[in-house]
Amino acid sequence: MALTPQNNDAFLREVDDELRREKVSDIGRRYGLWIIGAVIAALVAFGAWTFWQHRQTQQAGEQGEQLATALDDIAAGRAAQADAAVAKLTTSDRDAVRATALLTQADMLLSRKDLKGAAAAFAKVAADESLAQPFRDLALVRQTSVEYDSLQPQQVIDRLRGLADKGSPWLGSAGEMVAVAYIRQNKLPEAGRLYGLIAQTEGVPQSLRGRAVQMAGSLGVDAVDQSGPANQTAAQ
Predict the structure, then answer these.
(1) b vs e for 19-47, b when ≥16 Cβ sit within 10 Å of the residue's Cβ?
(2) Is 160 within 8 Å of 144 (Cβ atoms)?
């Protein structure tokens, strides 16, 4: 019996649907286990990644709390208790925690007048390229401060030259050490200019700016008008 156009369209749709179901069924038979395995593997991987992210955040919080507790112990004079906590955190996989713990450990050695040990600990941080530059710069300034009396003036200048410059957050402490090194070399104009720069830099602590005004003046550099509030500190 001939099919009308309407019946023909319906028949073609039915055949097409059947072929589609058969194709899906065939794929299921041939690849079903692989597809299920892949889906499970993806879910496991996603779950593991989510857990790792959560654990990293949780671990960072825990280590931050441990570090804060250790600093409280130091302030309260519980040095032995703080020692163990800080030593454990020096191996942290969180760079900020590890750097802070190492710097704290160096300061603890310094408080016990172990200058050699403190200098070595600061040097370790300064040389660690895996740490952020601000941590390394701070460690270098602290190391130089501890070793200052045993260093030649040029060694101080070479170490801190890049930190004793305009725009550097370490201008105050590094700049003063470099200026004194210049004086020891009898390079008075260089020392005077550096003291003048310290005196007129607003980010430098006021006490240091006031001292820089006085030193610059004694070296023939008038930093009074440029120093703002530092001049008031120097005059007190």
Answers:
(1) eeeeeeeeeeeeeeeeeeeeeeeeeeeee
(2) yes
What pLDDT, in 10s, does the model give residues 175-230? Answer: 999 999 999 999 999 999 999 999 999 889 999 999 999 999 999 998 775 444 44
DSSP sequence for the chain: -PPPHHHHHHHHHHHHHHHHHHHHHHHHHHHHHHHHHHHHHHHHHHHHHHHHHHHHHHHHHHHHHHHHHHHHHHHTT-HHHHHHHHHHHTT-SSHHHHHHHHHHHHHHHHHTT-HHHHHHHHHHHHT-TTS-HHHHHHHHHHHHHHHGGGS-HHHHHHHHTTTSSTT-TTHHHHHHHHHHHHHHTT-HHHHHHHHHHHHT-TTS-HHHHHHHHHHHHHTT---HHHHTHHHHHHH-
CA 201, 205, 207, 212 torsion-angle sign: negative
pTM of the model: 0.65
Tokens at residue 128, please? 């660690």
The first and second tokens of residue 157, run together, are: 């200048």
| Statement: residue 24 has pLDDT above 50 | no
Residue 114 tokens, joined = 């172990």
Q: Check: CB of residue 66 under 8 Å from CB of residue 102.
A: no
Q: Whole-angstrom Cα distance, residue 204 to residue 216? A: 15
